[in-house]
Known about the structure:
Shape: globular
Oligomer: single chain
Helix content: 40-55%
Amino acid sequence: MKVATCFHMHSHSLLFFVVVLTGTPFVALTGTSDQETAKTICKELVLQNCRSVFVSPNRTNLRFSVFKVAKEGMLTQLNWLVELIQTQKNQTPKTIIFCPTMYAVASVFNFLLMKSGPKAYYPEDSRKKEHCLLGIFHSLTHQEYKERVVESLKGNGLKRIIVATTALSMGVNFPDIRYVIMWGPPRSLLDFHQEAGRAGRDGLPADIVTYLYGQQLTHCEDDMKSFLKSSECHRITSYKNFDDSIASLSPSHDCCNHCAATCTCTGSGCVQEAKPFEKECLQDSGQQTRVVSAEEKKLINEALNELKDKFKSSVGVSPFGSTSCHGFSEELICDVVDNCHHIFTISDIQAFVPVFSNHHAIKILEILSEIFDDIDSVALANQVHYSSETTEQVDGFEYLIVSDYPDPDLDEESTDLDFVE
Length: 421
């Protein structure tokens, strides 16, 4: 529909004159569009006696995977990416992570950076922005940084994993993206395939991985809901509005994670090893927990707001929300309160809370330790020492955010901030 609207706004009067009054032959080309959108385009362009040439959008080198996960600890599903960064460094397979909101972009980027540690840079002893293997891309990113990301993805640059909004899903051609990750479902199947289309454009195998939790479905259109709720082949259900003749691939393990679960390519089983992201979903975290009362949550909220005010008095406004201060935002405080029954270490904070520095993480742990008195004092002291040793890395990240990303209150992609919540 967006394509048709664009045509209507910019070309309708001229096309009516050329096509209808002069009878000049006219060709209209579009990428992935469902049948309803195609009809709208023909109507808006006043195409008479129209002949359609249809090429199936089915790309057999793409493998589709859908994972419904718990909102709590959702970020730990990306541990496999951290492992790739740590082991393959500047040869990490190129990956784009599409996020629905600016807050999600910040959360995912921060998790990957803090979990990867020095290995998020190449060489490891550098903290320069241009040496970071991770990148951020949204509509208001400074042009210089956009160009750095785009050129890196087009060639063999250092940027290997880009956390982005849909600003990176159109008008670009990156040949060798191996993973496209959708951090929450797109609103429609058109959007889904637009984002998926960034992967495997060199014809080699690539994976499309979607993570979601239940409440996010309420923001999706009906076609996307049907796809995500389906218990059939993900390839067939995702393409059915575009080409109802598409069938599952053989061998089944190349089609989607639903078909891979029943693959018998050897006659008695499947020879294909589990994908790295599938191994992560199978792991049992064995997470330590505590019982937290409503009164204790109230105390945590008050203490964190006092801490936020201290940061606010010494640091400017965070670029990830007009009420955020140095990354210590209201959203972060809510996440800490909601997940305080899980938080005992820095690793727990990285898994459950999008905190933007180890210094912030230590302050949060100190507050929880005072309230619950169940955090090992020796372990906490060691983590304070670790935080002081890694300040340079974290400061580099915070400078990257402050210098490259304007206030997203002006960004159309950030108007749905409560979508994540």
